[in-house]
Amino acid sequence: MNRFAEVKDLILSLEGDFEKFYDKGNQAAGTRVRGGMQELKTLAQEIRTEVQEIKNNAAK
């Protein structure tokens, strides 16, 4: 469940930048949002791989 907490923490850490970008048009916040979303993508892929490995090992 720790991995889920990582995802939640990352999303929550981006909340302020989302507001600054979408509500106030702050371009630097948009850059941070894009970076954070790339980090989220990487984290999601790591979790997918981990889940697949656990699933495959349990089937043996």
TrEMBL record:
GO terms for molecular function: DNA binding; structural constituent of chromatin. InterPro entries: Hc1. Belongs to the histone H1/H5 family. HCT subfamily. Might have a role analogous to that of eukaryotic histone proteins. This is Histone H1-like protein Hc1. It comes from Arcicella rosea.
